[in-house]
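Is this the right way to post structure tokens for a design question? Let me know if I should format differently. Anyway, here goes:
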């Protein structure tokens, strides 16, 4: 893990995880399709927030991908909260 703001400005820093949030899975998001293949379509995001020793704060969020299809197969999103 590297701080995205420090990377942009060619600085180095130590990174720390603040918290980890996982939304609960709603009913009906796991099922077997007509071919008997298991699907998991969790519409919620998992979010981790971080900070570095230079005062930058950011979050990274992603969805758990379905093992059988393309649902949730996206790159994690990074959002700067405090560029300091």
């Amino acid at each position: 893990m590297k701080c995205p703001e420090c990377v942009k400005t060619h600085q180095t820093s130590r990174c720390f995880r603040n918290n980890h949030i996982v939304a609960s899975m709603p009913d009906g998001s796991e099922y077997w399709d007509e071919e008997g293949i298991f699907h998991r379509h969790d519409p919620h995001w998992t979010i981790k927030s971080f900070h570095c020793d230079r005062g930058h704060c950011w979050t990274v969020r992603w969805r758990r991908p379905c093992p059988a299809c393309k649902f949730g197969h996206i790159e994690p999103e990074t959002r700067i909260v405090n560029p300091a």
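Format looks fine. Someone answered above. Worth noting: The longest helix spans residues 4-8. The chain has a mean pLDDT of 85.
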